[in-house]
Amino acid sequence: MLLQGKTIVVTGGNSGIGESIVLAAAAEGANVVIDYVAHQDETTALIAKVESVGGRAVGVKADVSRPADLAGMIQKAVDSYGRLDVLINNAGIETRSSLLDTTEADFDKVLAVNLKSAFFATQIAAKQFISQGGGGLIMNISSVHEDWPMPGNIAYCVSKGGMRMLTRTAGVELGNHDIRVVNVAPGAVATPINASTVDDHEKMKALEAAIPLQRMAQPSDIADVVVFLASGGARYMTATTVVVDGGIMQGSVGL
Predict the structure, then answer these.
(1) Which keywords has UniProt assigned to this entry (predicted)?
(2) DSSP state, 46?
Protein backbone atom coordinates (compact mmCIF):
# COMPACT_ATOMS: atom_id res chain seq x y z
CA MET A 1 0.00 0.00 0.00
CA LEU A 2 1.34 3.41 -1.01
CA LEU A 3 0.40 5.25 2.20
CA GLN A 4 0.55 2.49 4.79
CA GLY A 5 0.62 3.96 8.31
CA LYS A 6 0.76 7.61 7.22
CA THR A 7 -1.49 10.09 9.01
CA ILE A 8 -3.23 12.47 6.62
CA VAL A 9 -5.45 15.45 7.41
CA VAL A 10 -7.92 16.53 4.71
CA THR A 11 -9.67 19.87 5.17
CA GLY A 12 -13.18 19.99 3.71
CA GLY A 13 -12.93 16.23 3.63
CA ASN A 14 -16.58 15.20 3.76
CA SER A 15 -17.65 16.06 0.19
CA GLY A 16 -16.44 16.49 -3.39
CA ILE A 17 -12.72 16.14 -4.05
CA GLY A 18 -12.01 15.94 -0.31
CA GLU A 19 -14.25 12.91 0.15
CA SER A 20 -12.60 11.16 -2.77
CA ILE A 21 -9.15 11.89 -1.32
CA VAL A 22 -10.23 10.45 2.04
CA LEU A 23 -11.42 7.22 0.43
CA ALA A 24 -8.39 6.87 -1.85
CA ALA A 25 -5.90 7.56 0.96
CA ALA A 26 -7.61 5.14 3.34
CA ALA A 27 -7.63 2.45 0.65
CA GLU A 28 -3.85 2.85 0.44
CA GLY A 29 -3.43 2.33 4.18
CA ALA A 30 -3.48 5.90 5.53
CA ASN A 31 -4.98 7.00 8.82
CA VAL A 32 -7.25 9.88 7.82
CA VAL A 33 -8.49 12.89 9.76
CA ILE A 34 -11.55 14.41 8.08
CA ASP A 35 -12.04 18.10 8.76
CA TYR A 36 -15.56 19.46 8.29
CA VAL A 37 -17.43 22.61 9.19
CA ALA A 38 -20.98 21.37 8.49
CA HIS A 39 -22.90 18.16 7.73
CA GLN A 40 -21.56 16.02 10.55
CA ASP A 41 -23.88 13.23 9.38
CA GLU A 42 -22.03 13.05 6.07
CA THR A 43 -18.73 12.83 7.93
CA THR A 44 -20.06 10.01 10.10
CA ALA A 45 -21.24 8.15 7.01
CA LEU A 46 -17.85 8.63 5.34
CA ILE A 47 -16.01 7.28 8.40
CA ALA A 48 -18.28 4.23 8.34
CA LYS A 49 -17.47 3.73 4.65
CA VAL A 50 -13.74 3.90 5.37
CA GLU A 51 -14.03 1.48 8.27
CA SER A 52 -16.15 -0.96 6.24
CA VAL A 53 -13.14 -1.63 4.01
CA GLY A 54 -10.68 -1.89 6.88
CA GLY A 55 -9.47 1.72 6.95
CA ARG A 56 -9.10 4.13 9.84
CA ALA A 57 -10.61 7.63 9.99
CA VAL A 58 -11.78 10.21 12.51
CA GLY A 59 -13.68 13.45 12.05
CA VAL A 60 -12.95 16.86 13.53
CA LYS A 61 -15.15 19.94 13.30
CA ALA A 62 -12.96 22.93 12.49
CA ASP A 63 -13.58 26.26 10.80
CA VAL A 64 -10.49 26.50 8.61
CA SER A 65 -10.64 30.30 8.56
CA ARG A 66 -9.74 30.27 12.27
CA PRO A 67 -6.10 29.43 13.12
CA ALA A 68 -7.11 28.17 16.57
CA ASP A 69 -9.42 25.62 14.94
CA LEU A 70 -6.63 24.60 12.57
CA ALA A 71 -4.31 24.00 15.52
CA GLY A 72 -6.98 21.84 17.15
CA MET A 73 -7.37 19.90 13.90
CA ILE A 74 -3.65 19.11 13.72
CA GLN A 75 -3.62 18.18 17.40
CA LYS A 76 -6.52 15.78 16.76
CA ALA A 77 -4.38 13.98 14.20
CA VAL A 78 -1.45 13.69 16.62
CA ASP A 79 -3.67 12.60 19.50
CA SER A 80 -5.45 10.00 17.35
CA TYR A 81 -2.52 8.49 15.47
CA GLY A 82 0.68 9.68 17.15
CA ARG A 83 1.99 11.97 14.42
CA LEU A 84 1.18 13.94 11.28
CA ASP A 85 2.62 13.02 7.89
CA VAL A 86 0.51 14.86 5.30
CA LEU A 87 -1.72 17.94 5.40
CA ILE A 88 -4.06 18.46 2.46
CA ASN A 89 -5.51 21.98 2.24
CA ASN A 90 -8.60 21.11 0.23
CA ALA A 91 -11.38 23.30 1.69
CA GLY A 92 -12.54 26.01 -0.70
CA ILE A 93 -15.45 28.24 -1.68
CA GLU A 94 -16.30 30.72 -4.42
CA THR A 95 -18.78 33.56 -4.95
CA ARG A 96 -18.97 33.69 -8.76
CA SER A 97 -18.89 37.48 -8.81
CA SER A 98 -16.98 39.99 -10.95
CA LEU A 99 -14.56 42.70 -9.84
CA LEU A 100 -17.31 45.32 -10.07
CA ASP A 101 -19.82 43.26 -8.08
CA THR A 102 -17.71 41.60 -5.36
CA THR A 103 -18.45 42.95 -1.89
CA GLU A 104 -15.88 43.29 0.86
CA ALA A 105 -17.66 40.56 2.81
CA ASP A 106 -17.56 38.19 -0.17
CA PHE A 107 -13.88 38.89 -0.79
CA ASP A 108 -12.94 38.41 2.87
CA LYS A 109 -14.84 35.13 3.11
CA VAL A 110 -13.28 33.60 -0.01
CA LEU A 111 -9.76 34.67 0.94
CA ALA A 112 -10.23 33.45 4.53
CA VAL A 113 -11.41 29.98 3.56
CA ASN A 114 -9.21 29.45 0.52
CA LEU A 115 -5.94 31.26 1.28
CA LYS A 116 -5.70 32.34 4.91
CA SER A 117 -6.59 28.79 5.97
CA ALA A 118 -3.91 27.28 3.72
CA PHE A 119 -1.30 29.74 5.02
CA PHE A 120 -1.88 29.11 8.71
CA ALA A 121 -2.52 25.38 8.33
CA THR A 122 0.80 25.18 6.50
CA GLN A 123 2.50 27.08 9.31
CA ILE A 124 0.99 24.89 12.03
CA ALA A 125 1.67 21.64 10.19
CA ALA A 126 5.26 22.67 9.44
CA LYS A 127 5.91 23.33 13.13
CA GLN A 128 4.49 19.90 13.94
CA PHE A 129 6.69 18.23 11.31
CA ILE A 130 9.79 19.97 12.69
CA SER A 131 8.88 19.10 16.28
CA GLN A 132 8.32 15.40 15.61
CA GLY A 133 11.12 15.02 13.02
CA GLY A 134 11.15 13.08 9.79
CA GLY A 135 9.85 15.74 7.42
CA GLY A 136 6.37 15.83 5.93
CA LEU A 137 4.17 16.97 3.07
CA ILE A 138 1.76 19.87 2.67
CA MET A 139 -0.47 19.65 -0.37
CA ASN A 140 -2.76 22.44 -1.55
CA ILE A 141 -5.75 21.69 -3.75
CA SER A 142 -5.59 24.77 -5.91
CA SER A 143 -7.11 25.22 -9.38
CA VAL A 144 -6.13 25.94 -12.96
CA HIS A 145 -7.38 29.41 -12.04
CA GLU A 146 -4.25 30.00 -9.99
CA ASP A 147 -2.80 30.90 -13.38
CA TRP A 148 -5.75 31.12 -15.78
CA PRO A 149 -8.15 34.10 -15.46
CA MET A 150 -11.82 33.30 -14.92
CA PRO A 151 -13.84 36.49 -15.50
CA GLY A 152 -16.80 36.63 -13.15
CA ASN A 153 -15.06 34.71 -10.35
CA ILE A 154 -12.27 37.07 -9.42
CA ALA A 155 -11.95 36.54 -5.66
CA TYR A 156 -11.60 32.79 -6.24
CA CYS A 157 -8.87 33.37 -8.83
CA VAL A 158 -7.01 35.74 -6.50
CA SER A 159 -7.14 33.16 -3.71
CA LYS A 160 -5.82 30.39 -5.93
CA GLY A 161 -3.07 32.63 -7.29
CA GLY A 162 -2.07 33.24 -3.68
CA MET A 163 -1.97 29.50 -3.04
CA ARG A 164 0.43 29.10 -5.94
CA MET A 165 2.90 31.58 -4.45
CA LEU A 166 2.38 30.16 -0.96
CA THR A 167 3.34 26.75 -2.32
CA ARG A 168 6.42 28.02 -4.12
CA THR A 169 7.72 30.14 -1.26
CA ALA A 170 6.91 27.72 1.56
CA GLY A 171 8.43 24.89 -0.43
CA VAL A 172 11.70 26.85 -0.67
CA GLU A 173 11.64 27.94 2.98
CA LEU A 174 10.88 24.48 4.37
CA GLY A 175 13.04 22.31 2.11
CA ASN A 176 15.90 22.15 4.59
CA HIS A 177 13.50 20.54 7.07
CA ASP A 178 12.63 17.83 4.50
CA ILE A 179 9.13 19.29 4.24
CA ARG A 180 7.63 19.27 0.74
CA VAL A 181 4.91 21.66 -0.41
CA VAL A 182 3.01 20.88 -3.61
CA ASN A 183 -0.08 22.29 -5.35
CA VAL A 184 -2.57 20.18 -7.26
CA ALA A 185 -4.49 22.30 -9.77
CA PRO A 186 -7.66 20.59 -11.05
CA GLY A 187 -9.62 21.79 -14.04
CA ALA A 188 -13.38 21.25 -14.20
CA VAL A 189 -14.47 18.55 -11.73
CA ALA A 190 -17.93 17.05 -11.15
CA THR A 191 -18.41 18.23 -7.56
CA PRO A 192 -21.18 20.12 -5.73
CA ILE A 193 -19.41 23.44 -6.41
CA ASN A 194 -19.99 22.83 -10.14
CA ALA A 195 -23.54 21.49 -9.84
CA SER A 196 -25.03 24.30 -11.94
CA THR A 197 -22.83 23.25 -14.86
CA VAL A 198 -23.26 19.50 -14.38
CA ASP A 199 -27.06 19.89 -14.35
CA ASP A 200 -27.15 22.00 -17.53
CA HIS A 201 -26.89 19.86 -20.67
CA GLU A 202 -25.85 22.72 -22.94
CA LYS A 203 -23.18 23.98 -20.54
CA MET A 204 -21.79 20.46 -20.17
CA LYS A 205 -21.73 19.95 -23.91
CA ALA A 206 -19.76 23.18 -24.41
CA LEU A 207 -17.39 22.39 -21.57
CA GLU A 208 -16.63 18.87 -22.72
CA ALA A 209 -16.00 20.13 -26.25
CA ALA A 210 -13.36 22.48 -24.83
CA ILE A 211 -11.53 19.72 -22.93
CA PRO A 212 -9.08 17.72 -25.07
CA LEU A 213 -9.93 14.54 -23.14
CA GLN A 214 -13.62 15.27 -23.88
CA ARG A 215 -14.96 14.86 -20.35
CA MET A 216 -15.21 16.64 -17.03
CA ALA A 217 -13.00 15.12 -14.34
CA GLN A 218 -14.41 12.93 -11.61
CA PRO A 219 -13.17 13.57 -8.04
CA SER A 220 -11.33 10.23 -8.16
CA ASP A 221 -9.19 11.56 -11.05
CA ILE A 222 -7.81 14.17 -8.67
CA ALA A 223 -7.62 11.86 -5.65
CA ASP A 224 -5.45 9.35 -7.51
CA VAL A 225 -2.90 12.09 -8.27
CA VAL A 226 -2.98 13.21 -4.63
CA VAL A 227 -2.22 9.66 -3.48
CA PHE A 228 0.77 9.46 -5.81
CA LEU A 229 2.12 12.83 -4.62
CA ALA A 230 1.77 11.69 -1.00
CA SER A 231 3.69 8.50 -1.74
CA GLY A 232 7.40 7.88 -1.90
CA GLY A 233 7.25 8.05 -5.68
CA ALA A 234 6.97 11.86 -5.55
CA ARG A 235 9.69 12.36 -2.94
CA TYR A 236 11.72 14.83 -5.06
CA MET A 237 8.81 17.15 -5.92
CA THR A 238 8.30 20.41 -4.05
CA ALA A 239 7.50 24.11 -4.55
CA THR A 240 5.56 23.35 -7.72
CA THR A 241 2.07 22.80 -9.14
CA VAL A 242 0.79 19.62 -10.75
CA VAL A 243 -2.00 20.47 -13.21
CA VAL A 244 -4.77 17.87 -13.60
CA ASP A 245 -7.13 19.42 -16.14
CA GLY A 246 -7.62 17.06 -19.09
CA GLY A 247 -5.72 19.59 -21.19
CA ILE A 248 -8.30 22.36 -20.90
CA MET A 249 -5.76 25.13 -20.34
CA GLN A 250 -4.13 24.25 -23.63
CA GLY A 251 -7.32 23.49 -25.54
CA SER A 252 -9.47 26.53 -24.82
CA VAL A 253 -9.40 30.16 -23.69
CA GLY A 254 -11.73 32.08 -21.39
CA LEU A 255 -14.00 29.42 -19.92
Answers:
(1) Oxidoreductase
(2) H
pTM, two decimal places: 0.95
Question: Does domain 7-242 sit in CATH 3.40.50.11810?
Answer: no
State the sign of the Cα–Cα–Cα–Cα dihedral 30, 2, 182, 15. negative
**H helical segments located in 35-153:** 40-52, 67-81, 104-111, 117-132
- What is the spatial distance between Cα 60 and Cα 238, in angstroms, rounded to a whole number? 28
pLDDT range class, residue 252, cuts 50, 70, 90: low
Residue 118's nearest CA partner among 174, 190, 170 is 170
Give the pLDDT confidence of 188-213 residue by residue, as tens digits.
Answer: 999 988 888 888 889 899 999 999 99
Q: Select from 211, 160, 176, 171 the least CA-distant residue to 190.
A: 211
Distance CA 11, CA 124 (A): 14
Residue 253 has pLDDT above 70, yes or no: no
Whether 121 contacts 90, CB under 8 Å: no
Q: For residue 81, indicate whether it is catalytic.
A: no
